[in-house]
């Protein structure tokens, strides 16, 4: 395990992690949890990772007042599968949810979306009546093809939904001409606000209405995913950026940050700041030639299994549990969020759920238990990767590549010929894990036979 440190503004002390025997006996609790996910945000597109072209003060405040994970990973290099894994706590490849939702499916019997037999964290929360639940923003777990309400958020454990089902939507579709904007199970006729602001508005309303009871709020911003559309006033703030494409991205991210600030202000106004855990991450890496994000110093981008596709900004602010300024270099996975959030809200994970992640709470703070040694896996079709925390084996093209991430974060030096025994060990680990996966149920892959036409929704 790498050294973990807590930076103290007064003493400058560096405190090593304690042993597992020193972990707190009583599981920590939070009255509320807010899970915020950005869409296609680059690793270098936040201030706490060194970005200085534009401002992300509220996202940076979460990092400054919480824990930053330098090796924060998601389960996929594209949007939908990451969300499937994160919200079920299972590798999506074990659920038939390996690919983005698309108009093709394996058989006529499977739905166009996350299989109905697999429970989301919101389902589990509602089963135990633990908290009110809501999602505002991007869904991308099914329902848009054939407009199948069984796959809508209100059928998957959420009390409230305002957003869209697809992988992307316009930011300024006032009359909802795309037929994407929804409230509950119904299309809305108009949305006057820029959509990032609308997501912020709905999140604030939910907090205000449920401030006196526990809640789980999933804020799924579509920013800064394409289409590249920004507000005029936000563009004015970043007019110093010469590249016009990068300027639009900056304006979109600043607007998302503004709305995170509005959410934080609402918590403070209602005396909920100290009672609320907040998680912030991106669903995958940025795509420089599409939304003009930057993943430096990482190699690769969205759609690849190099670090730039799967290592993301990842922060937890949890008053009383996650010390301000803590930075952890151990691997953290988006699969860890289900058990962490569920336990934080007072639930007890059942072994029969077969969750793949760990509860992060015992591993935070000066008296934390050491992170377990583990290996993480990724796969889509014939592309895959496996990472044991130091060594990473990748198959992006025809040949496998082996990288030592401790010494080569940019994945520039393929060491497979110098270390065949390490490559063989990781390859066998991947093959054993791959035996637990199932074929994808749906997607855009032409090998999937059954095709649907998008139905008229009005």
UniProtKB/TrEMBL annotation:
Domain of life: Bacteria
UniProt domain Sulfatase N-terminal: residue ranges: 31-346
N-terminal signal peptide: 1-20
Family statement: Belongs to the sulfatase family.
Name of the molecule in the record: Sulfatase-like hydrolase/transferase
Keyword list, A-Z: Hydrolase, Signal
Molecular function terms from GO: arylsulfatase activity
InterPro entries: Alkaline_phosphatase_core_sf, Sulfatase, Sulfatase_N
Taxonomic source organism: Persicirhabdus sediminis
Any Pfam family: Sulfatase
